[in-house]
Amino acid sequence: MATKRLDHFEVVCEWASCGFRGHTMEELSDHMSGHLNEYLGDNDALEELDEYACLWNACEFLSMGSPAELEVHAYFHNYHSKLKFVGSQLLKSRPDLPSCNQGVHSNSLLPEGSDGYVCQWEQCDSTFNNPEWFYRHVNNHVENTELQTLSQQQQALFCNWAGCDAFFKIRYRLREHMRSHTQERLVACPTCGSMFSSNTKLFDHLQRQAEPIESLVCEHCSKAFPSERLLRDHIRQHVNQVKCPFCDMSCTTLAALKIHIRFRHCDERPFPCDFCDKRFKNQRDLQKHTEVHNEGTVFHCSVEGCDYSCHTFQTMSHHFKRVHEVGGMSKYKCHICGKVFSWCYTLTLHLRKKHELKWPSGHSRFR
Questions:
Q1: Alpha-carbon separation of residue 164 from 158, 180, 184, 276, 281 (angstroms)
Q2: Whole-number Å distance between alpha carbons of 275 and 277
Q3: Higher-confidence residue: 279 or 220?
Q4: 25-40 and 67-92 are packed helices; what angle lies between their axes, rounded to 10 degrees?
Q5: Are residue 118 and residue 266 in the same domain, yes or no?
Q6: Domain check: are 23 and 170 in the same one?
Q7: Are 108 and 39 in contact (CB under 8 A)?
Q8: Tens digit of each residue's pLDDT (9 = 90 or more) over 240-297
Q9: CB half-sphere exposure, 362, CA atoms < 13 A
């Protein structure tokens, strides 16, 4: 599997302040494998250990009793570093964009992992502990998919992922669609480490942090934006042209309507939990639920003097914003009077009672 060429690709290994510079993902993966072999040693001897700490710089990840989970996590550091390199190269061509002003504390924080990645393509159950190889493997499925005949002599490329019946006329669209199953990200902010599925979303991430321009105001809700593109994307949320046949809900796209129908009007739950009797409507909800059964992984707060720890990345992020960031969790701001709230629900109540606003028919909240 050859690495897609990146000009001047160079990523520094930060495992235990190593400093090794890799120029391909193969080289970086082999190098990380050496670190893990040295750190973990004999797997039989490791069975007696209780915890495995990640030695990556500024990473507080701690796996309890699972060396396999540490391996997955360590290889994701390599992948994350690659995405941050891609982001840094992209931003060199966009000097007009503002700098990211989010805290660098999350630069080395990664989403909680698992014991590996499982391909759910039809008749394939391959597993991987390295995200780079997993995403390339899935892409091979996409590239090898053949056109199938639909009605009236039309042909399409079908997604053969478990529980999915989507199809596309163009291979590029199928490739994009697969990211909804694999959660693959293509680029990351080199400052805060946030990952995105497209270059445009990285640019939007930075643009949203700029000061809004008074002339770029939404005519529907009076909210101001720092760019015309962000304003246009926002206005689309007010223009709902696709109506649900089962209720008063209206959506901006057919894809959004399909999701609405699945969650609001269908009882089918094809994704069962392996640890309890609960079932879910999509793979992502199942993955989030599985975290409650994971009593091994522990995240420790990286702020000096704070001994807080938890079992999920989301909980740790919530703790940091609530306790350590200036302003705490007050992130929902009323666009009319400027009052700030910690929860979207309280902002909704404020808009309804204080300003007597109403959301569109079929919706349960403001958008």
A1: 9, 11, 17, 24, 12
A2: 7
A3: 279
A4: 150
A5: no
A6: yes
A7: no
A8: 667 888 887 777 777 778 888 888 888 888 888 888 888 888 777 887 787 777 665 5
A9: 19
Q: Which residues contact 145 (CB under 8 A, 6 or more apart)?
A: 157, 158, 160, 171, 174
| Total-model pTM | 0.69
Instruction: Give yes or no: residues 245 and 122 share one domain.
Output: no
Q: Report yes or no on 31 lying in a domain.
A: yes
Q: Considering its fold, how many domains does the chain have in total?
A: 3
Supply the range of the domain harboring residue 348: 330-367
> By the 8 A CB rule, do 337 and 330 touch?
no
> Are 107 and 235 contained in the same domain?
no
Provide the pLDDT for residue 136.
95
Tell me what the pLDDT averaged over the chain comes to. 82
CB 300 within 8 A of CB 60: yes
pLDDT, tens digit, for every residue of 238-253? 776 678 888 877 777 7
Q: Which residues contact 330 (CB under 8 A, 6 or more apart)?
A: 340, 341, 342
